[in-house]
Design goal:
Blueprint: H1 9-19, E1 28-30, H2 41-54, E2 59-61, H3 69-75, H4 77-84, H5 87-99, E3 103-106, E4 110-113, H6 125-129, H7 142-148, E5 150-151, E6 160-162, E7 169-171, H8 173-182, E8 187-190, E9 199-202, E10 207-210, E11 224-230, E12 235-241, H9 257-261
Parallel strand pairs: 1-2, 4-8, 5-7, 8-10
Antiparallel strand pairs: 3-4, 6-7, 9-10, 11-12
Amino acid sequence: VCGDTHGQFYDLLNIFEMNGEPSPTNPYLFNGDFVDRGSWSCEVIMTLLAWKVVYPDSMHLTRGNHETKGMNRLYGFDGEVKHKYTDLMLDVFREVFQALPLAYTLHGRVFVCHGGLFSRDDVTLDEIRAIDRFSEPPDEGIFTELLWSDPQSGDDSRGREASKRGVGVQFGSDVTARFLDNNGLDLLVRSHEVKDEGYEVDHFGRCITIFSAPNYVDSAENKAAFIHFSMPEMKPNFTQFDAVWHPDVQPMAYASNMFNMFG
């Protein structure tokens, strides 16, 4: 399971160099935010989709909050697609993003989504399956929370707080435990947040954040990581890695003029 890649194409290739190319014996799940910020978003998403065509049962992609129209307009993907391709291609990408699953379960034990959990405790897997995902996310509700929510830090965190992002919620370890227990699950894996070591384990070991864009936007100096689950116990094993060389194109090179004005 890999986290955000955010247009860092050369780091994506490094993942395949380290862990092998996708295949029926080496499946991958990339957990959203393939595009924006990094300046090779087209190459990242086209590579992942190509592997999806070759091995549809061995390449899995969840939708992140950056697989949405509003974020793509601001953070570079719209501009990059128009620069490299056409407006028609942008429409195709938008249609593809709306078709992406919002979450996965792995062997009935691990729940994977990009953002996090919910503003209420009674959400079930059946309710998540019933979401009409072929649209842009609404302002609130479980669709949006799957893409945007974050865990509170610490095993002793409790309840819910307003999100620092202004969308979704920040949920405590008790919320994580109730959702997992109510749905017969062991572990939540999510992404959505840069971590210095590339991953973080919290909420009594039941909430993992995984982030796979090293030295995020060429400035964060973070490591990246991915998870390999060993069978049959589904134990998470982490591989960390550093950023690799890329051509001299700055992050956000195709972002909206509002961002370019401020560097």
